[in-house]
Amino acid sequence: HHAKEKGLSQSFFNDAMQNRLQSRLELERDLDQALKLQQFELYLQPKYWLADGTAAGFEALIRWHHPLRGLVMPQAFIPQLENTDRIIELGYWVIEEALSMLSRARARDGKECRLAVNLACRQFLDASLPTFVEAALKRHSINPAMLELEVTESSLVDHFQHALTSLHSLKRLGVDIAIDDFGTGYSSLSYLHKLPFDVVKVDKSFTQELGKDGATEHIVKSLITLVHELGGKVVAEGIETDQQLQWLQLMGCDMGQGLLLGPPMSEEELIRRQDGSLLEWPRIRHKKS
Ligand code: C2E
Ligand code: MG
Ligand code: MG
Ligand code: MG
């Protein structure tokens, strides 16, 4: 029966939409709770200078301790929140928590440590971000040079003029800017010289092809040369094998992070694993090539 068929497919469609909407509303409601109940935690992944294996700081990566779902990874909630203003609120929490970690680390170790924080596109383009960052740095007495803000290549390319304005106001504070997930967008290398950046992060999908795929190696090699000519530094993410590490060291890549060097860990675990200090994480071996 025609009408019945239509009714069926329509209700199927509505159910699917309803589920999607419900899970988004649930997510947003849960998020409000999660912030209140302190269910978020920033994990820290160590970053190293590849030339001598010394510590270069950490990247903060958010985790959600959900009462029913357990440990929830960012891919399961950040992309959905990116379409709402909730991401800005969460982003403020991340910056606040990152800076209090830095001030705790300074109190423990007696010296400063560098930390990189990821910014969602909407958060990065929000006009109140620089004021917030500036106030938060003052509140925690953190040297702006210790904070690095990671912005994805696609946020920069998709909103180029607006992004330039945001980058300049953030740079004025004295923080460093890293272009994250480089190579995953559809941009060309040629626009890099227009951006005030300090660091380019080679996406892990590229790192994973090193030693296997000549074309990728060629791109990464050219990128390292170009970024150096522009006065920036290169970080390779997702280093999992000795072969990848050696290739990057040989090509003069400045810094690296990945499971081979150290996974993201809670602050508590990091401190436990290295006798109370965030800075003395075992050095990677220096490989002579
Ligand atoms: P990202 O900034 O590119 O972070 C790198 C991701 O690679 C992290 O995933 C990290 O755990 C993972 N990773 C590290 N080493 C390796 C490795 O050797 N191999 C592989 N395969 N992966 C490795 P994670 O923690 O799941 O975060 C995923 C993404 O979520 C991040 O990508 C970032 O875009 C976003 N994210 C994380 N924390 C935040 C946050 O506080 N705010 C915002 N806006 N986004 C965040
Ligand atoms: Mg990142
Ligand atoms: Mg990245
Ligand atoms: Mg990435």
Write up this protein.
With 289 residues, the chain is of the alpha/beta class. It is built from 11 helices and 9 strands. The protein has an 8-stranded mixed β-barrel. Helix 10 (242-250) links the parallel strand 8 (233-236) and strand 9 (255-256). Helix 3 (86-109) runs parallel beside helix 5.
User: Average pLDDT, to the nearest integer?
Assistant: 88
- Which kinds of small molecule does this entry bind, naming each only once? ligand C2E, magnesium ion
Physical arrangement of strands within the biggest beta sheet: 1-2-4-5-6-7-8-9
Largest sheet: 8 strands, mixed, barrel
Total beta strands: 9
Radius of gyration (Å): 21 Å
Strand content: 15-25%
Question: Which range best describes the helical content: under 10%, 10-25%, 25-40%, 40-55%, 55-70% or over 70%?
Answer: 40-55%
Q: CA-to-CA gap between the ends?
A: 75 Å
Structural class: alpha/beta
C-alpha geometry: globular
Low-confidence stretches: 3-7
The H-and-E topology, N to C, reads as HEEEHHEHHEHHEEHHEHEH
Number of helices: 11
